[in-house]
Amino acid sequence: MSPVAVVVFDGRTGEVKSRNRETDRIAGLLHRPGTSLDEFLGTVSARRADGREIAPDDVARALSEARPTRAEEIILRSPGGESLTALVNVAPIHGEDGGVESVLVTMQDMTPLEDLERLRAEFMGLVSHELRAPLTAIKGSAVSALAASPIPDQAEVEQYFRIIDEQADHMRALISDLLDVTRIETGTLSVAPRAEDLGAIVDQARNTFLSGGGRHPVDIHLPPDLPHVMADRQRLVQILGNLLDNAARHSAETSPIRLTAAPEGAHVAISVTDQGKGIAAERLPHLFRKFARSGREESARRLGAGLGLAICKGLIEAHGGRIRADSDGPDRGARFTFTIPAVEAGNATAGASSSRKSLRRRPGPRRRRVLVVDDDPQALTYARRTLEGAGYRPLLTGNATEIHDLLEEQQPDLVLLDLVLPGTDGIELMKTIPALADLPVIFVSGYGRDETIARALEAGATDYIVKPFSPTELLARIQVALRSRAVPAGPYKAGDLVVDAEHRQVTMAGRDVPLTATEYKLLRTLAGNGGRVSTYDYLLRRVWGWDHSGDTRPVRTFIKKLRRKLGDDAKAPRYIFTEPRVGYRMTEPEGG
Known about the structure:
single chain, 28 strands, 7-stranded mixed beta sheet
């Protein structure tokens, strides 16, 4: 059906000689379905671009008698108050005698264009808001750092700079999205594809998503024989990040996002599937248009919500692929699938060697040290002043990635841990950083809900304090936590093996045994349970923080590594013994 209404009037009588279906559709919008055109023209009023009003009964005559007109906006109004803006063209057709034999009138419904303009206006307002927010944060952090008195501690200054750095990155990402859309529209977007290992790219995209604050578990399922793809690595990470972010925005926080891939002819098809609100069938064809909405309610208005999928489409097509969306309807999730050209490639050899530090203790007397982990510079300032005034030595950081090194190098006596941190939370850190389990940990948070406190204590926290709190309360809780700290027993000794939990040191015949954090925690757990069987479930829960898992492979893999480093033989063990289908045990400590 033509998107333009076409009406031919008799040039002498003004009567309608012919019309098309779009004309009837417009008449039905302003009157009622099935309305005849004559009835419609007899009841509708109009206002021309110059402001002149045309009363009912005069519209047909005005159109049929009009001079040649090109692209004039006319607003049509029905008796019921409905209105419609139409772009009107009028072309008189002259007969052999020079008189007007008929008048051709075309009308185009401007509603879709008005909707687009409205979306553009909303989008520009959203751009202004999105750019103003990071600018405000940057300005505020800079002013706070410059105006602080006395001079802030280095950790506090680092947190101000972290905020500035993060917000500058956020602004750069927003501007980059706008530039990408412009390049896509002008046909100047370029990519630099090369043979890449899809598994490595998917892993990078997941890590970027999670480190950027993503809270949804991402389940990755890639077949082992998946071919390499011809892709621009950075751009493919961007595509996957946009799709993961889109899935997370429309899903409950606890629901997983599934990422799969499979060969599809000369391409590899990659799918991102969520269990969220789904998409109505009529919205699917419009998803990849700029400013388009999926029809799913937005949990938050964001610039990326109007550009992300359009950018994905442009980048994928620049690679020579295609993207599509599927959904079984509202509340039944959605799946976005795109293709990338496959290449014949040999087995990629990729490895990353990482140097592991030996678990050593820095000897010597020291004041009681308290590690404070908080991303709020003002909270760090408050804690530093309170602790220094009470004779403690505060160690300050707002970066969760620094915790492991600070625990190893500074050996604090207690940890004040903020519940919510950028890209992670304190409860998650309790599960992933083994050294925290050896220390009294006090959670600090503005959330005082009973279930949140219970989760923190179940994760191994010693105490939980709700902001705001007084210096007196904080110091009292620290003193109680330090007094309740269990006095460590002597080192575990069995033959040449010594596991010194107090000094976090493992030696074999007097020589240090370098272990990774997970290897050390596993060995310390087995040694602390010396003489008794440690079941698979117990080890998974104690070392990896997994409450429920039937997968014993992590335990068996690390036991194998431990035995190799300790010089132990699984067939004739001296230190670590296997209890078939149950777990492992170590011998009782000498003198135990």
